[in-house]
Amino acid sequence: MSLEHxxxxxxxxxxxxxxxxSVAQNHYGINVIKVKEIIMPAAVTTIPHAHPNxxxxxxxxxxILPVVNLRKVLGYPxxxxxxxxxxxxxxxQQKIVFHVDNVSKIHRFSWDxxxxxxxMYAGTDTQVIGVIKKExxxxxxxxxxxxxxxxxxEATIRVEEVKKLGKRERNNKRIVIAExxxxxxxxxxxxxxxxxxxxxxxxxxxxxxxxxxxxIAESGKEIKDEVQLVIxxxxxxxxxxxxxxxxxxxxxxxxxxxxIIFSSLITDALRHKGEMVGADAQISxxxxxxxxxxxxxxxx
Length: 300
Description:
Layout: E1 15-23, E2 26-31, E3 35-39, E4 54-60, E5 63-69, H1 70-73, E6 85-91, E7 94-100, E8 102-110, E9 114-115, E10 128-134, E11 137-142, H2 144-151, H3 159-163, E12 171-178, H4 182-194, E13 197-203, H5 206-218, H6 223-226, E14 229-232, H7 241-250, E15 259-263, H8 271-276, E16 281-284, H9 288-298
Parallel strand pairs: 2-11, 5-7, 12-13, 12-14, 14-15, 15-16
Antiparallel strand pairs: 1-2, 1-8, 3-6, 4-5, 6-7, 9-10, 10-11
């Protein structure tokens, strides 16, 4: 099943298409934009001393791809069934295969239908970034970036990369960042502090960030005196980054703010979506140095 199709969703509508799959009879979801294709399980070559969540590698059309077992990631006992599928994905500039129990269908939702996990049942180590209520069941959206960061820390944002930029001066510009992943918020805080950016306000989704910015504008304060730059992820419950960018650029009081989209979904095929909503720059995770250089250029 190939998902190499034209993205039909208009940019900035706050909609998302989700591929629903199951693991241990529970329902999970992944953004269709991350999915290249869904295939039957192939022969896996095990790798000595690999991370326990990595089954091994497969060869697919001449490419060698790692296979991550979602049963292991989610803490379920290993089991193989006749309906098992491999979900071939591409994000964060890399291709990864996820082994799941079954794949059912594609759904279209608005991000405001997707709730962020409650602190009552989702601690700091949770793999869940969103909850969708659908009829008599729930679909849990998983933090695939976090899964890969835990398996291979070299593939995520690292303070060591910032040090390659050389000595940095302290910067008092105020930055607003919308990022739903707790792990990514911590990594961004550490790396941007190293880069000299100390005045950072983090929000877990675009809705909270927009309410904060709107509150400043409604108070009568000049927005450019209070905030000099907005950085946003794309995938977030309640309001995604494309919709946040569109709302900022359409607001007479906020449109002066530069917006940088920093996401694992920045590809040549999808870059036009950010351009359509008026993003001032688009940087692919985990290119933290490119983000910092864009920040240096774009801050008011």
